[in-house]
């Protein structure tokens, strides 16, 4: 019943081939990378992280692991954890804030976390919860959870919503949640809804301390998209933006906008339908980000113009720029041979940063590489230049294979996780410093 980020594409009918050629057409620049923490499966800690990280004001890092915790649960692999990394004396200490228990609790958090205004952490699990689910009652359809810090130390977990496969609610929330200014939570589910092809949902707190769910959009699987697998972002007007992995005019995914309408309803508009035509991207698996000028940036898992082991292409980074008429113009900034699962982040100068699952100079995958951290910089007069900031796996004990994106600290250091590698080959947290 487990569906990792490797197998979601198979569930939708597209094969994922993870043997790629070494990245070409790039210039490697020396950066300083170090592993801050290596995961293992020896105790109560988590392992195999697939999500990115968030920082608190003190510079502590927070994330999730898909497996680990109590190894007597979830078939002996553990149901996953939420962890904190705290720096002190030049070293980092990992603390498990919560081990998921499956059953009515959540299980297998694939996505990252979001901070609330009060310092609470919010996230999703792809399985678990008390909802009725046709994929197996023991597995559950997923949850939205809250972790609140306790006075004197420790954290308290609360399940805010358990998803149901009931023909109305969504299920399988692979992406995280986004908060608005009032503390409402917004997210997506890959499956469910009236059409069965995924939903956008909203959770609002009540005066009694409960949370009420509303489905803002149920995807039909047609031109409006299907299988939204990533978190959402807001613009300054309160509109929501996201991606779907499939559907659209060519059935290769969309970028969509949801706008509040009268009566509490929301109107969906497709800003771009991806087309696996050898030049466009295809299959966007990650979320979006705005730059200061209102342009949208994201990645696709397939498509692009580079030859690779997959006949459907191995991914792109794209830009969508708004026109005055309300339409958007798409431009492919980079085509890959190495699968960018995660989205990109942008700095004040307009440079983009991201990761690829494979590629680089590491020895993984029979020469396919262990993954990279890359930078895309805009050129004067147009075009973008790619630099490889780090190739994973070149140094013994380094991380390998990253599904997750990056985050900045105030000094411009980049932080992220790798799914494998590290000292025990169960994943790592890394830092790349300029």
Radius of gyration: 20 Å
Q: From the helix content, strand content and strand pairing, which structural class follows? A: mainly beta
Low-confidence stretches: 1-29
- The proportion of residues in beta strands is 35-45%
Cα distance spanning the termini: 42 Å
Residue share in helix = under 10%
Average pLDDT reading? 91
The largest β sheet comes out as:
5 strands, mixed
User: Order of strands in the sheet with the most strands?
Assistant: 1-34-33-32-31
What is the count of DSSP helices, taking H or I runs of 4+ residues?
Answer: 1
Number of E-type strands = 39
Shape: globular
What does this structure look like?
- There is one protein chain.
- By secondary structure, this protein is mainly beta.
- 1% of the residues lie in helices and 41% in strands.
- It is built from one helix and 39 strands.
- It has a five-stranded mixed sheet, with no helix packed on it. It has a four-stranded antiparallel sheet with strand order 2-39-37-36, with no helix packed on it. Strands 4-5-7-8 form a four-stranded antiparallel sheet, with no helix packed on it.
- The protein is globular, with a radius of gyration of 20 Å.
């Amino acid at each position: 019943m487990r569906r990792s980020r490797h197998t979601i594409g198979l569930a939708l009918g597209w094969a994922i081939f993870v043997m790629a050629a070494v990245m070409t057409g790039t210039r490697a620049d020396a950066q300083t990378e170090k592993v801050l923490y290596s995961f293992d499966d020896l105790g109560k800690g988590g392992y195999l992280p697939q999500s990115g990280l968030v920082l608190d004001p003190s510079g502590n890092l927070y994330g999730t692991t898909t497996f680990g915790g109590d190894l007597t649960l979830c078939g002996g692999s553990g149901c996953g954890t939420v962890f904190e990394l705290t720096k002190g004396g030049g070293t980092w200490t990992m603390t498990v804030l919560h081990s998921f228990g499956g059953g009515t609790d959540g299980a297998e958090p694939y996505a990252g976390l979001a901070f609330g205004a009060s310092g609470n952490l919010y996230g999703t699990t792809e399985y678990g919860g008390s909802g009725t689910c046709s994929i197996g009652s023991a597995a559950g359809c997923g949850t939205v959870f809250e972790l609140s810090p306790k006075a004197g130390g420790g954290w308290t977990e609360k399940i805010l919503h358990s998803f149901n496969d009931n023909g109305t609610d969504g299920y399988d929330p692979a992406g995280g949640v986004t908060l608005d200014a009032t503390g409402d939570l917004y997210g997506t589910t890959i499956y469910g809804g009236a059409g069965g092809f995924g939903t956008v949902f909203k959770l609002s707190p009540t005066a009694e301390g409960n949370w009420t769910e509303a489905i803002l959009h149920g995807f039909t699987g047609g031109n409006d998209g299907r299988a939204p697998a990533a978190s959402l972002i807001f613009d300054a007007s309160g509109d929501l933006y996201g991606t779907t992995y499939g559907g659209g005019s060519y059935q290769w995914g969309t970028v969509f906008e949801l706008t509040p309408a009268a009566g509490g309803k929301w109107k969906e508009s497709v800003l771009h339908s991806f087309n696996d035509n050898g030049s466009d991207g295809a299959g966007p698996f990650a979320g979006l980000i705005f730059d200061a000028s209102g342009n949208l940036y994201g990645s696709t898992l397939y498509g692009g113009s580079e030859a690779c082991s997959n006949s459907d292409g191995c991914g792109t980074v794209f830009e969508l720029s708004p026109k005055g008429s309300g339409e958007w113009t798409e431009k492919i900034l980079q085509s890959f041979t190495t699968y960018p699962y995660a989205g990109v982040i942008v700095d004040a100068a307009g440079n983009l940063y991201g990761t690829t699952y494979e590629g680089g100079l590491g020895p993984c995958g029979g020469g396919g590489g262990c993954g990279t951290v890359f930078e895309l910089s805009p050129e004067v007069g147009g075009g973008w230049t790619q630099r490889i900031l780090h190739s994973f796996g070149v140094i013994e004990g380094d991380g390998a294979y990253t599904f997750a994106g990056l985050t900045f600290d105030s000094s411009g250091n980049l932080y992220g996780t790798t799914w494998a590698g590290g000292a025990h080959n169960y994943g790592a947290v890394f830092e790349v410093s300029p």
